Amino acid sequence: MSRVLFILAVVATVATVISAQCAATDNVNCASWVKNGFCNNPGYTEAYRQQYCPNSCTNSGCGAAGATTTTAATPAKENANCPKWNEDPTNAFCASQSAANIKTFCFTTCAKEITPVDGCAFYVDTAGKVVRTGANKTAANDDTVVPTLATATNKILYAYAKTGCTVAFYAAATSPATPPGLAPDLVGAGTITKVTVAAQQTAAGITCKCTA
Ligand SMILES: *[C@@H]1O[C@H](CO)[C@@H](O)[C@H](O)[C@H]1NC(C)=O
């Protein structure tokens, strides 16, 4: 019993010390100090930033306190595990998680999913690591096949088509594509779609046709 109380007391003390370093509000002069380089001036210690501009200095180490009073929108973070999560075929983080999750937790690793620049993309399990390949074909009648290098063991897990683009899957990676492809085509809606048709998972090539 006394031991539990002791531990609680220690925890409470530590918590008090941490919050005591970070002032609840910024000094009224913070805006102008920050403009003059206060936050990044090596002459000022972190303790100074925590005492005077805990919210305005993003490097104050005061964490969430800063996010509440500044204009911070979604606190975008890059978890150190993102690259590992994203190459895991059972997770493939950027392709399989919600838009909110990839933005909140892996905004750097998932940059291509957050702001898509490619007309189409596909994700292949390449010897246990997920590899994303983007493809651009601007002409609606472009039937150049992009090789996927997918096989029975290295399957296509996901595919993406921007609105206005269509991904079609082919058994061979030879151009021009010879219709019909391996149905159904993925008609672009700007979302990443799990490839569930077995023949498509091992498709050797895709085409990406875009109207715009
Ligand atoms: C597709 O086109 C966009 C815009 O021009 C470009 O940023 C992107 O890198 C291209 N993607 C590929 C895979 O070539």
TrEMBL record:
Q: Which UniProt keywords apply?
A: Signal
Chain ranges of the ShKT domain: 22-62
Q: Which InterPro entries match?
A: ShKT_dom
The superkingdom of the source organism is Eukaryota
What Pfam family is a match for this entry? ShK
SMART domains (alphabetical): ShKT
- Using the record, list the residue span of the signal peptide; answer none if the entry has no such feature: 1-20
How is this protein named in the record? ShKT domain-containing protein
